[in-house]
Design goal:
With about 140 residues, the chain is an alpha+beta fold. The chain has one domain. A four-stranded mixed β-sheet has the order 2-1-3-4, with helices on both faces. A hairpin with a 3-residue loop joins strand 3 and strand 4.
């Protein structure tokens, strides 16, 4: 599979309402067109996870991949995405200074409860034609 050049890839839980809302938020604020998206449940999502040896039983909600550089999970992924927006989101840098064990414990708490709090869909979202280019197939 040929990954898009110079794009960061966000893998997300395609049936999670919180995750889908977060993807919509990122798309709206991605002024530099840095990101592409794929559901963890998709064929591409599964392939990207497998190639990197990521255990999705312990990381089941968000993964940020910078092809050829690194990948980030949990709170580190969320903070790196937030920092890319600039402006007030640069405050995410402060949270990135916290120990990963602390920020990941908060992240894991939200992740464990996301279906209960925000609900779940029967299937992954289908992007509109206008947004199709932002999603990997």
């Amino acid at each position: 599979m040929e990954l898009p050049k110079n794009k960061k890839i966000i893998l997300f839980d395609g049936v999670c309402n919180l995750c889908n809302s977060s993807v919509q938020y990122v798309i709206k604020h991605d002024k530099k067109d840095e990101f592409r998206f794929s559901a963890l449940q998709s064929k591409i999502g599964q392939q990207l996870v497998k190639e990197r040896g990521i255990d999705t039983s312990s990381i089941d909600s968000i993964i940020l991949i910078e092809p050829g550089i690194a990948y980030y999970t949990k709170s580190e992924a969320a903070l790196k995405i937030a920092q890319s927006f600039g402006g007030v989101w640069n405050i995410a840098w402060l949270f990135a200074q916290l120990p990963a064990s602390f920020s990941n414990s908060i992240y894991d708490y939200v992740a464990r409860n996301r279906y209960k709090w925000y609900g779940k869909q029967e299937s992954c979202i289908i992007p509109t034609p206008a947004l199709q280019e932002k999603f990997l197939e």
